[in-house]
Sequence to fold (588 residues):
Amino acid sequence: MVKKDEKQISFEQAMTQLEKIVSQIASGQIGLEESLAMYEKGMELVQRCRTILDRAEKRIEMLSQSNGGLSAEPMNSSSEDQDE
Amino acid sequence: MDGGLFENLRREKSPGRSAKAVSKSNRAPDEHSVSNPVRTVSQVNHMIQEALSAQLPAVLLVRGEISNYSVSQKGHVYFTLKDPQAELGCVMWRSDAVRLNFTPQNGLAVIAQGAVRIYEPQGRIQFYAGVLYPQGAGALELAFRQLCEKLRSAGLFDAARKRPIPRLPGRVVIITSPTGDVLHDVLITAYRRFPGLHSMVFPTAVQGAAAAPQIVRAIELVNQHADQIGGVDLILLVRGGGSIEDLWAFNEESVARAIVQSRIPIATGIGHEPDVTIADLVADLRGPTPTGVTELTIPDVAVLNRELLSQARHLSRDVMHQTSGCRGELKDKTRALTDEFRSVVFDGARTLENFRGQIQSIEPRHAIAQGWRRIETTEHSLFSGVSAVVGRLRTDLATWSDRLHAASPESRLARADAGLESLKAALVFGAGTLMRDQKHRLDALVRNLELTGPQAVLQRGFTITTDRHGAVIRQAAQAIPGERINTQTADGAFASVIAPMHKP
Fold:
């Protein structure tokens, strides 16, 4: 069973929130206090996105049916020697 | 005529005679023969039916070209199947015809599956087709076009129903053949762009009759059990190049429906760039090739990182800009506030001075009236005092005059006269001095009064402030912001409204 980072938002959500923050601040219609809070939040989102992008653990699995559901087995060779 | 069939009958029923020999002779046939009785038409047709059932396979597959195609009112389909040498009449019942996923046409090559039977009432041998399989590229293309139209008018190709592909799919299921180069190329391309990708391969056949059911099953299972494998952001359905027959599984209606039903977005990359299958048309995204669709769906993280950096820069720049703008504003506002504060303090101080300078217990009219009364009283007492003295002096003079008159010697008279004169002079002088003194006293009093009276105070610049009832405002607490007040100066008065106060 594979666990997902449920507490952390996805890349898609983070980028969408970040774009909203950037455009709101650029519009110049936000007060200074709110701007600073949003800036902090924006930087957090940038960090979250970078963490996801910089992930380097390559993970390839083969799926098969089992017990009425699915199971995943890691492919033991690297992707370079996939041909059988 | 089917020679083989009648050959068997001849051998069984009439060993000695040939049918030809009988027709050429003029002798009438033996109607009462036991070995070869005369039969009725119905009987013969029935015999043919039985022979057909016995001799031919129950299910036959026949390849031929369709001609004389027609559909009856009831929906039954009639056509002729032919090859270069022969033809065979066919019928397909409406219940079987509606299950066709293409409309047969004259000239179409097909394989018909069914049985040969005789329609006994009319002695007509026909092929009763249960299924038709379109053959050859022409037929397949026709089937493709027809299914396209059907699904298009059902709205399955509409852009509006397509699901968005996540910007960065972190978990991808690849449905494809586990052998061959396609999977290898897709993985290489994907991991070059996003090293952190988590990919899962669901192996299926990608051509032949087994392919479509396996692909449908794969899509269904992945949707059903996505949670078991940690969630799935995207399904990639890919296969390499091939002919229209090779790719045919991706034109099956079952596969198209499975793609439409999928909750998880599906991107397809099937064959080469010009190959377009129905799966491509219903997919949420189509790539020209397996590698192409991988590039379209898996972004290059280097590019994304640059975009992120750019967003972060914009953010910093805009916030700094706003901060410095606010700093400037704050400076200006502080200055304005300080100025305002200063002026209010000064005004307050001055007002305070005014309040403090007021004479505590004096009511102006009362004070003035009091002053005048004092002046009048003083005047009165002054004059009454002088009159009293003058009266007394007159009385004394009269007494003296009488006494003098009673004594009467002339010298004494002369002396008395002189004495009277000097007395008169003294009287006049004294009265004058007295008067002057009293006048000085009066003047001094008046001056004193003037100096300490309210007018002097007013002259010095202090003012007397009364509220709208006319009561004097002595304390700051009496001053209610917004109330109308009257201010009296030395030479007049003016009205004003109390401003909000700054308590020191």
